[in-house]
Amino acid sequence: MSNVESFLLTSIVISLIINTAISLYGVFSKPSLIKKFIALTIFSDSINSFAIFIGFRRTSEAYPSIAVHHEIPRNVTEIHQFVSSAVDPLPQALVLTAIVIGLAVNMFLIGLIILFYKYYGTTNVRKVRI
């Protein structure tokens, strides 16, 4: 791996960590429910991006390779080549599931924020008098 690739991968990880920290700050410190909702959405997107980054595997090809063999590999080197070119599908499946669940949770939270605004007349949690 060259220095440029190492720098780019490191900068991606650092930016994901900073993005996650900023979104957590927004969730815990902002009084507006709309700002909390936006920060929570950014947080979930950052975690999904991090999961995709974990599942990344660098290969020599620039195009996505389909690991299909019509015959059984004969020796250990062919098996090793097949396994090294395949991508782990688990992070992709988990991210897809997290996106769908996150969308449902976001719609539920938007409904709760609308009801909160109709009942209290504000989305600022510090101005609510019980």
Automatic annotation (TrEMBL):
Q: Does the keyword Membrane apply?
A: yes
Subcellular location per UniProt equals:
Cell membrane
Give the membrane topology.
Multi-pass membrane protein
The protein's UniProt keywords, in alphabetical order, are:
Cell membrane, Membrane, Transmembrane, Transmembrane helix
Note whether DNA-binding occurs among the keywords.
no
One cellular-component annotation, GO: plasma membrane
TM spans (from-to): 6-25, 93-117
Q: What is this protein called?
A: Sodium:proton antiporter
Q: Which organism is it from?
A: Ignisphaera cupida
